[in-house]
Specification:
1 helix; 4-stranded antiparallel beta sheet; photosystem ii; single chain; Methylamine Dehydrogenase, Chain H; membrane; hydrolase; about 350 residues; photosynthesis; Glycosyl hydrolase; mainly beta
């Protein structure tokens, strides 16, 4: 009896010791976790699993505003976020390194090695090795109001002219390295410039404004356009005959080097944003909003104009067109080729 009583008396003591030990372990558990995390953070280095994901050169969100012929049959394209893309003959797209992340509005080539790109905040980039390296031009003239360069054109002997907001009309004579103003700042946006032989420049801009210089930009004449809407682009096939296009489907022609202009009635009212002369097809070709295109095939009595769209479901806008033999490369909300029958956009990811 005494032994059983003794056992009954010792049982509560052992229970209390176990309870105290359990409480001690529970109270120490948070500190154990904290110490473990600190050790892991300080002394354990994570190892990468698999390879890193490299974004594609051309993404769906990219906007490609300018396109030009590059070295070896490749194309150079100027895009948003400072991107300059190379499109090779196999339609493979790679990205060239640039020193800026500002959107680039246009690009033009002098030859296979020299090219220049312009864009927001008056940024100007130039290359001397076909785009392998791009440098930013220093001391580009600026406005205190607004700075955006809309277009750049190249001519002979390293001459380039860039146009943009607040009357920006800039020229380089050393392949884009240095730039000077051709006119004082003014409250107008210039959208395009044609460089003709003999130092003739023809400039078009908003509100139907047109400028012409016959002496390399020393003196300027204001020409009268038959429209009041903005003119977005101009091109000349020779020193005399040129075409300008603009908002609301405007098409203008000049036969005297840009002094006088006549409106062509085209059965379309979508904005037209670029135009070129394709000597291989003896054809004017313009592109713009909602997949719109306009062509003028040269005949005995002048161009015969017609219009159409890239496709019933192709409603993208395009700011640039580039002739590639019988086909055209278009750049804007997307990039692709129009062969006169089918629109084939580049793949993006």
């Amino acid at each position: 009896m005494n032994n059983r009583a003794s056992l009954r008396m010792e049982s509560p003591t052992r229970s209390n010791e176990k309870l105290r030990l359990s409480n001690l372990l529970v109270s120490a558990l948070p500190w154990t976790i904290i110490v473990g995390l600190l050790y892991a953070g300080l002394f354990i280095k994570p190892k990468a699993v698999g390879g890193s994901v490299t974004p594609p050169a051309l993404e769906r969100r990219d906007r490609v505003y300018g396109i030009a012929h590059g070295e070896g049959g490749a194309l150079l394209a100027a895009a948003s976020n400072g991107k300059i893309l190379v499109i090779d003959a196999g339609r493979k797209v790679t990205r060239q390194a640039t020193p800026v992340d500002l959107s680039l509005q246009d690009i033009a080539a002098f030859d296979a090695r020299h090219a220049v790109a312009v864009g927001n905040d008056n940024v100007i980039l130039y290359t001397e090795d076909g785009g392998k390296h791009w440098a930013r031009a220093a001391d580009v003239p600026r406005s205190q109001v607004a700075n955006k360069l809309n277009r750049v054109r190249t001519g002979a002997n390293g001459v380039a002219v860039a146009v943009g907001e607040m009357g920006a009309l800039l020229r380089s004579q050393d392949y884009g390295k240095t730039w000077q103003r051709l006119r004082e700042e003014e409250d107008v946006a210039w959208n395009d410039v044609a460089i003709l032989d003999g130092g003739v420049y023809v400039v078009v801009g908003e509100f139907g404004k047109i400028l012409r210089s016959g002496d390399g930009g020393k003196r300027w004449e204001k020409e009268q356009a038959p429209v009041e809407g903005s003119l977005m682009a101009t091109a000349f096939r020779d020193a005399s005959y040129g075409v300008a296009v603009g908002l609301d489907g405007v098409v203008l022609t000049s036969s005297d080097g840009g002094r006088n202009w006549t409106r062509v009635e085209v059965p379309a009212h979508d904005h037209l944003l670029d135009v070129l002369w394709n000597a291989d097809k003896s054809e004017w070709f313009a592109v713009g909003a909602l997949g719109r295109w306009v062509s003028g095939t040269q005949g005995a009595d002048g161009p015969q104009w017609k219009t159409g769209v890239l496709g019933e479901h192709t409603l993208s806008w395009h700011t640039r067109v580039l002739a590639a033999g019988a086909a055209y490369w278009l750049a804007g909300a997307d990039v692709g080729v129009w062969n006169g029958r089918q629109w084939t956009p580049l793949d993006s990811h």
